[in-house]
Amino acid sequence: MQRFLIVNPSSGTDSPTAEELSTAAQSRGVEVRFLEDGDDLKELARAAGADVVGMAGGDGSLAAVAEVAIEQDIPFVCIPFGTRNHFARDLGLDRDDPIAALAAFDDAVERCVDIGRANDRLFLNNVSLGIYARLVHRREHHRRRRDALARLRAVALTVRDRRRQQRFTIDGTQVRARLVLVSNNDYTLSVLSLGERERLDEGKLHLYIPHGFRRITWEERACTELEIGAPQPRLRTAVDGEPVELDTPVSFRIEPLALRVLVPRAPEPE
């Protein structure tokens, strides 16, 4: 069985390093390829011709390789090696131990989980529109310019825009909101943020719109498909935390149990 892992060395932390993760994977007989500038993640995964494909990186990188796994009907291995690692968390993996996650290449349980699509763009977690999407795009713009003040400017943008609302049309109904979020399965809501997902196989999209400023309440609904329009022909969004521009209206849909994921087998109770 050919097992292939792509590692994004720029996503990880100092411990373990990308080199240490690569060495641990190769000791299991896994072929490893470091992602380099200019590489196309999907093409790397497709060209591998593997029986199992994995990605060590952040949520945005995971989604690209997961799409190839779906295309080729092969299992996917998630190695948490990014900043947030929300998908790994909701799979039940230890986000602080990417080397332990490599066990999925050897002794694993296969799970089938849902994926979402925004137009044709796959997402594993969620798609944000509005203030958070603008923040992500602004942060990326300054990062590419190597602007040392990028984080400060992103915070300033959030403060300046916190009362600003954007116009959307959601399934034909006009809405004004600072933030609209569409998720793959249901999140636990806290006052100011989204928590974890208890399930990844519910077969439902969830729409969240926060209301209020000092006392936040959330409007929520579940569905299997959804359309969101905006006055502009292209809309800035954050797809699994990555800046993406999508043609409007954006058509969302759920694909139940579309992704085969391998997770390490739980140890037998003593």
Overview of the molecule:
The chain contains 7 helices and 18 strands. It is an alpha+beta fold. Strands 1, 2, 3, 4, 5, 6, 8, 9, 15 and 18 form a 10-stranded mixed β-sheet that branches. Helix 6 runs antiparallel to helix 7. Mean pLDDT is 88; it is low at 144-160.
Helices and strands, in order, run as EHEHEHEHHEEEHHEEEEEEEEEEE
The major β-sheet equals: 10 strands, mixed
Helix share of residues?
Answer: 10-25%
Helical stretch tally: 7
List key phrases describing it:
270 residues; 25% helix; 18 strands; 10-stranded mixed beta sheet; single chain; alpha+beta
Write the layout of secondary structure elements.
Layout: E1 3-7, H1 18-26, E2 31-34, H2 41-48, E3 52-57, H3 59-72, E4 76-80, H4 86-91, H5 98-101, E5 108-118, E6 121-123, E7 126-130, H6 131-144, H7 150-161, E8 166-170, E9 173-177, E10 179-184, E11 187-189, E12 194-197, E13 205-211, E14 217-223, E15 225-229, E16 234-239, E17 242-247, E18 250-264
Parallel strand pairs: 1-2, 1-3, 3-4, 4-18
Antiparallel strand pairs: 5-6, 5-18, 7-10, 7-16, 8-9, 8-15, 10-13, 11-12, 13-14, 15-18, 16-17
Helix pairs in contact: 2-3, 6-7
